[in-house]
Amino acid sequence: MIYEKQIIIPPKNGWKPKTYYVVEISMNIHNPVFMDIFYSGFLNDGRPCGYNELIRINKEITDVKYLRVISKIDSYIPNNGKMLKKTIPEYFLV
Q1: Domain coordinates of the chain in residue numbers?
Q2: Strand 34-39, strand 53-54: pairing
Q3: What is the pTM for the complete model shown?
């Protein structure tokens, strides 16, 4: 898939909002390919738009020449949103 003179190879099942991916990227045709973590942020027409970020280089998807998704990162945590005292109450016995 080409996005305005970029080569972007999305996940097989399409982008998911606010999701982390392992990606390979290159900044331009004279730059080697390297690995980064990509946060998709918000989607517009099924593509990352607002608040997306390549974590290692602190850039957005619009700043790269080439990006290919290798895998989605499972970011589920069982205690998401719980207060720490409720998560491990044995540490807070007073």
Answers
A1: 7-92
A2: antiparallel
A3: 0.82
